[in-house]
Amino acid sequence: MAPMKAMKSSKATMTKTGLADAIATQHELKKSEVSKILDTLASVATKEVKSAGKFTIPGLCMIKTRHKPATKAGK
């Protein structure tokens, strides 16, 4: 059975600026404040993934690291 091809999205993904704008509009905050919050979230997530190997945003996603053993080359 042939492997499945990845589906191509016809719609562009949301950028950090677009996400900050959407959150700022919905919660009546400044876009710069929301941008700082997103930067802090990214730094905390990076720190946790490096130390614990896992980071969860409840109800949204979980980021886990996977350690794959090295494969021998040349065979």
Structure description:
The model has no long low-confidence stretch (mean pLDDT 89). A two-stranded antiparallel sheet has the order 1-2. It has helices spanning 16-27, 31-52; strands at residues 54-57, 61-64. It has 2 helices and 2 strands, in the order H-H-E-E. Helix 1 packs across helix 2 (31-52). Strand 1 and strand 2 (61-64) form a beta hairpin. It is flat and about 60 Å long. 45% of the residues lie in helices and 11% in strands. With 75 residues, the protein is mainly alpha-helical.
Termini gap: 24 Å
Radius of gyration, Cα only, in angstroms?
Answer: 18 Å
Biggest sheet, spatial arrangement of strands: 1-2
Tally of contiguous helical segments? 2
Mean pLDDT: 89
SSE pattern:
HHEE
Shape: flat
Helix content: 40-55%
Number of strands: 2
- Beta-strand percentage? 5-15%
Low-pLDDT stretches: none
Properties at a glance:
mainly alpha; 75 residues; flat; 11% strand
Question: What's a concise summary of this model?
Answer:
The chain is mostly helical and 75 residues long.
